[in-house]
Design goal:
Blueprint: H1 14-24, H2 27-33, E1 37-39, E2 42-45, E3 48-53, H3 58-64, E4 83-87, E5 92-99, H4 107-110, H5 114-125, E6 131-138, H6 148-156, E7 160-163
Parallel strand pairs: 5-6, 6-7
Antiparallel strand pairs: 1-2, 2-3, 3-4, 4-5
Length: 173
């Protein structure tokens, strides 16, 4: 039987469909459009460092490891956020996960894990005296009323969600 192609995102088609969404919600693009300068992974405003933009594994290589944090002392595995902004002025790490969907799928089951992931990141940042905020960026699919309970749960767990963009005010900027 011929395999039906996945035109909706998720699974094997994540790179084809989800990647475009991830690229159109770029933290660095939003920062630059708002007048910030990116030098390497440093975020500058008027020439002064306000934070670091460290996605995926760069969270470790460009921030945690240089700060003396070995994840194995706190977590059983490395977690690689889609994006992360480290606000060095407020000592807050903002973990940003992007979720794109066009049909029901496994993403539905992953959303309520935000509190667990926030807890894992809190363990990493606690020795540095940093707070952690966990943020989802969703596409419009998640505005469907069937997500009402899930969205309420995300909020109750102290996490945030936004649609289609990264609002910089939430990052303390």
């Amino acid at each position: 039987m011929a395999r039906i192609p996945n035109k909706h995102g998720g699974g094997a088609q994540t790179n084809r469909n989800g990647l475009h969404f991830e690229q159109t919600t770029s933290l660095n693009d939003a920062l630059i459009a708002s007048g910030y300068t990116i030098q390497g992974y440093y975020v500058l405003k008027y020439g002064f460092q306000v934070g670091l933009s460290v996605p995926q594994k760069k969270l470790y290589t460009n921030f945690l490891v240089p700060m003396g944090i070995d994840y194995r002392n706190f977590n059983s595995k490395e977690w690689h956020p889609d994006e992360a902004f480290i606000n060095t002025e407020t000592k807050t790490a903002y973990i940003i996960e992007k979720k794109f969907q066009n049909c029901s799928g496994s993403v539905d089951e992953k959303l309520p894990s935000c509190h667990f992931k926030k807890w894992e990141y809190e363990k990493l940042f606690a020795p540095l005296g940093y707070n952690v905020e966990f943020i989802y960026i969703f596409n419009d699919w998640f505005k469907d009323p069937k997500y009402r309970d899930t969205l309420e749960y995300i909020e109750r767990m102290g996490c945030y969600y936004f649609y289609n963009e990264i609002p910089l005010h939430i990052l303390g900027l």
